[in-house]
Amino acid sequence: MTRRLQNRGRDHYSGILLAHLMFLYMLCYRNCELVDPEGLTNQLRILKSVNVDGVMIDCWWGIVEAHAPQTYNWSGYRRLFQIVRDLGLKLQVVMSFHECGGNVGDDVNIPLPQWVREIGDSNPDIYFTDREGRRNTECLTWGIDKERVLRGRTAVEVYFDYMRNFRVEFDDFFVSGVIAEIEVGMGPCGELRYPSYPVKHGWKYPGIGEFQCYDKYLMKRLKKAAEIRGHTFWGRAPYNSGSYNSAPHETGFFRDGGDYDSYYGRFFLNWYSQILVDHGDRVLALANLAFEGTCIAAKLSGIYWWYKTASHAAELTSGFYNPAHRDGYALIAAMLKKHGVALNFTCVELRTLNQHEGFPEAMADPEGLVWQTPIFGQV
């Protein structure tokens, strides 16, 4: 997969052709050691020979801070970065705060840090949770962004400490310009969205997914928001929103004229999507603090199935409040613009006609989604 870095008014590299090397997942896995440096060097030389300018590499939280809080092991990554630099290539580095494994295309398992999983064993509410109480260990719930449940630190403090340590450790790569951009992971698969369609919980395309706000921290915030509005009985998630593989018309919440457009539905969806925006705002503010002067990027998931229905159900469960009568991306675009970040939007290359050939019932329209979003013109 290739992509181009977009210059955002900063004195950094514009128009750099990158190769996102999926095989790099395994290179730093065992105790953050480089597994096959010679083989890696040969593959990178091939890329260099076809005029690739740089590579995109995930720095996995579950590898680097694996065993104890604030004990970081970057050794394998340093060796990897040295090879890249010696070949005259650039780096786009991803701060990956999610697990690898369990989703489409994942052939490697890299869990969250062991010490985090130990906390989760006694307090599973640190994970996103669905209505049935199933925990998703892919990433931490945004409900603990400001809760000191990670050995005395909040989740955003943990992310900031990791990013700041990376910046100090690899100062020479920043100063020399080898590191051209930092992409900051903010959810499952590194994307700014709720983990609403997990394959591990049985989701299959084109299911609408499920709301992921049933951990005690997010439920507490929902109840508080309902009390502030003067409707305490609104302090609950929808009861009639179907299951992971439902279609919108099969549910009372997402069907045409359904509860998604009621007073309660609008309140809940506003709250649910604002949690997403607030999380992105917090993490990107700290990323800019840690990487001052470096181009920052964010990854946004294009949820294009059921786009041709009124409710846009799959977008709603993912946190994008974008039904047919509302622009659900304006607040996200404003937040990204505020922090001056570049954008990686995951469905730009998809074509609507191709989606209809395989799943005509999905009412998918990736081209319509890309056309509708204001993000590309504003960020």
Automatic annotation (TrEMBL):
Provide the leader sequence positions: none
Q: What does the entry give for GO biological process? A: polysaccharide catabolic process
UniProt keyword annotation of Hydrolase present = yes
Q: What is its EC number?
A: 3.2.1.2
Tell me any Pfam family this protein matches: Glyco_hydro_14
Q: Which reaction does it catalyse?
A: Hydrolysis of (1->4)-alpha-D-glucosidic linkages in polysaccharides so as to remove successive maltose units from the non-reducing ends of the chains
Question: Molecular function (GO) terms listed?
Answer: beta-amylase activity
Q: Name the source's superkingdom.
A: Eukaryota
Q: Which keywords does the record carry?
A: Carbohydrate metabolism, Glycosidase, Hydrolase, Polysaccharide degradation
Keyword Hydrolase in annotation? yes
Q: Which family does it belong to?
A: Belongs to the glycosyl hydrolase 14 family.
User: What name does this protein carry?
Assistant: Beta-amylase
The major lineage groups are:
Eukaryota, Viridiplantae, Streptophyta, Embryophyta, Tracheophyta
